[in-house]
Amino acid sequence: MGSLAQQEKTVVGWAARDASGHLSPYTYTVRKTGPEDVVVKVMYCGICHTDIHQAKNHLGASKYPMVPGHEVVGEVVEVGPEVTKHSVGDVVGVGVIVGCCRECRPCKANVEQYCNKRIWSYNDVYTDGRPTQGGFASTMVVDQKFVVKIPAGLAPEQAAPLLCAGVTVYSPLKHFGLMAPGLRGGILGLGGVGHMGVKVAKAMGHHVTVISSSNKKRAEAMDDLGADAYLVSSDGDAMAAAADSLDYIIDTVPVHHPMEPYLSLLKLDGKLVLLGVIGEPLSFVSPMVMLGRKAITGSFIGSMDETAEVLQFCVDKGLTSQIEVVKMGYVNQALERLERNDVRYRFVVDVAGSNVEAAEAETNGAAA
Ligand SMILES: NC(=O)C1=CN([C@@H]2O[C@H](COP(=O)(O)OP(=O)(O)OC[C@H]3O[C@@H](n4cnc5c(N)ncnc54)[C@H](OP(=O)(O)O)[C@@H]3O)[C@@H](O)[C@H]2O)C=CC1
Ligand SMILES: O=C/C=C/c1ccc(O)c(O)c1
Ligand SMILES: [Zn+2]
Ligand SMILES: [Zn+2]
């Protein structure tokens, strides 16, 4: 028998077995701790709409059993001998990506999320041939490059949504030169990603308009999140009155939707940044972009550098995510509520505080 580090570890996670997306306890092994590996005991894991897309096979590439979860905060419990970035006892985060080639142009430019050999934190295969499994589990083993330190001043459960939702809005604002104070931004879809969009954009000094599918979130958007204006997308008069007013729109809608009503809101040179994962073609007529030199673009999470940056940005600006903490036994109800747009604004699973081995009937119920 070798030391603990030389052995595979048995882990219990909650896995989907098929496209119903229903999660239930699943026991599997994770690799022996490699030289550059960090073993993370999961404390909290946020629930992103991508977890629904993946668990329910919306993109047609899901493999089962699948343990979702990519907004992971945990404690380092073991490190490989060549780990320099992290120590046992550190509180750290893991996001959407756990591997890349390190040789291609994106990797060399430290935008490894755009590496064509990226390895996803779940629903993928690691370099050793094992399936990757995500953060709705007791433990993850992750290469140190893809582990970020959670700075002091951020509660671990608050930090979890920053690892996907937070960096996903921060990265395009930075990359497209949209950080200057005074810009007028639109946040389309006020969910997990969208609410971080409002908070981050407000902290940058922008005038922020929420564009929502209903009036239900108006008061909280304005009063709690600090938005400056609120548009209901089906209100034709209000949409017309807001034409030609925005420098950018961060589009977080997770389903097919028309583009033209939102392109109309952009000023000359305005940018529509697509973040939602939509497996059907979107459409617009070319004058909608030509007659205003407008740009439709997209963005995918953020780099590890940007992840560290957004965490520090939130500390510096006093930002937190707005979350509902639940136990693992509630995860299926949480996924259903997320899908029917009934969460303010991110569920975070208290993994360490749950009995992950128990079937949901025994642990059913939300937790404070
Ligand atoms: N590009 C990237 O790197 C990333 C992409 N994503 C993707 O972004 C999208 C949003 O993720 P997330 O914020 O977690 O999702 P949420 O479900 O939390 O938020 C989506 C919001 O979109 C609006 N919406 C409009 N129509 C619908 C509909 N039919 N069903 C549900 N919501 C609707 C709702 O806002 P309202 O009530 O205001 O209308 C809802 O709150 C997903 O597709 C996700 O996969 C997520 C993270 C990273
Ligand atoms: O939530 C994070 C991941 C987003 C994502 C973006 C694009 C894509 O094709 C995915 O499968 C996931
Ligand atoms: Zn996500
Ligand atoms: Zn690469």
UniProtKB/TrEMBL annotation:
<comment type="similarity">
    <text>Belongs to the zinc-containing alcohol dehydrogenase family.</text>
</comment>
<comment type="pathway">
    <text>Aromatic compound metabolism; phenylpropanoid biosynthesis.</text>
</comment>
<dbReference type="GO" id="GO:0008270">
    <property type="term" value="F:zinc ion binding"/>
</dbReference>
<keyword id="KW-0560">Oxidoreductase</keyword>
<keyword id="KW-0521">NADP</keyword>
<dbReference type="InterPro" id="IPR020843">
    <property type="entry name" value="ER"/>
</dbReference>
<dbReference type="InterPro" id="IPR013154">
    <property type="entry name" value="ADH-like_N"/>
</dbReference>
<dbReference type="Pfam" id="PF08240">
    <property type="entry name" value="ADH_N"/>
</dbReference>
<dbReference type="GO" id="GO:0045551">
    <property type="term" value="F:cinnamyl-alcohol dehydrogenase activity"/>
</dbReference>
<dbReference type="GO" id="GO:0009809">
    <property type="term" value="P:lignin biosynthetic process"/>
</dbReference>
<dbReference type="InterPro" id="IPR047109">
    <property type="entry name" value="CAD-like"/>
</dbReference>
<dbReference type="InterPro" id="IPR013149">
    <property type="entry name" value="ADH-like_C"/>
</dbReference>
<dbReference type="InterPro" id="IPR011032">
    <property type="entry name" value="GroES-like_sf"/>
</dbReference>
<keyword id="KW-0438">Lignin biosynthesis</keyword>
<keyword id="KW-0862">Zinc</keyword>
<dbReference type="InterPro" id="IPR002328">
    <property type="entry name" value="ADH_Zn_CS"/>
</dbReference>
<protein>
    <recommendedName>
        <fullName>Probable cinnamyl alcohol dehydrogenase</fullName>
        <ecNumber>1.1.1.195</ecNumber>
    </recommendedName>
</protein>
<keyword id="KW-0479">Metal-binding</keyword>
<comment type="subunit">
    <text>Homodimer.</text>
</comment>
<dbReference type="InterPro" id="IPR036291">
    <property type="entry name" value="NAD(P)-bd_dom_sf"/>
</dbReference>
<dbReference type="Pfam" id="PF00107">
    <property type="entry name" value="ADH_zinc_N"/>
</dbReference>
